[in-house]
Amino acid sequence: EGRREILRIHFRVLRERGRLSRPLCEAIDGGVRGDAEEEGRGRKRRVVKGAVRRVLASLPGGKIYDLACDAVTGGFSGADIAGLVRCAGSIALARARKDGGGVENLLITLEDVENALE
After folding, report:
1. Best CA proximity match to 23, nearest among 74, 63, 72
2. Is residue 20 within 8 Å of 11, Cβ to Cβ?
3. DSSP-derived secondary structure for 8-35
4. 3-class SS at 48?
5. DSSP track, 35-53
6. Proportion of the chain above pLDDT 70, given as a percent
7. Among 66, 103, 108, 111, which residue is least crowded by beta carbons within 10 Å?
8. What's the distance, CA 32 to chain centroid?
9. Measured between alpha carbons, how far is 7 from 84 in angstroms, rounded to an integer?
10. DSSP at 80
11. Per-residue pLDDT tens for 29-83?
């Protein structure tokens, strides 16, 4: 939960200004978790989560992503996460400039964050 809170802190202003895509917000919030984390929970909850996962997987891109999980940002310090946010913002800005939309149409997407992680 500590890493998730750091992600929320660093992305908060961008989220408040409507500059984050919905899938990126869901990845920050960790809306859908992996099967290992679902073990031991009630059957009804697993069924609902499975249905949500199928719907999300059918969306463009088809990935379910949790930015706070160890596989993505494990070992990141607060400064590392701040750098990740800045890098994703730079990638989004470069794309907006290339598309001619300018800062008014800037939207940071989950793909921008994935590219920043590489």
Report:
1. 63
2. yes
3. HHHHHHHHHTT-B-HHHHHHHHT-S--H
4. helix
5. HHHHTTS-HHHHHHHHHHH
6. 69
7. 103
8. 11
9. 10
10. H
11. 886 544 444 444 455 555 555 555 555 455 455 555 677 888 788 888 888 888 9
When comparing pLDDT for 5 and 102, which is higher?
Answer: 5
Name the amino acid, one letter, at 93: L
Residue 94 structure tokens: 């470069």
| CB atoms near residue 71 (< 10 Å) | 8
Tokens of 39: 């073990």
CB-based contact 67:27 (threshold 8 Å): yes
Instruction: Report d(CA 44, CA 26) in Å as an integer.
Output: 22
How does the average pLDDT of the chain come out, rounded?
Answer: 76
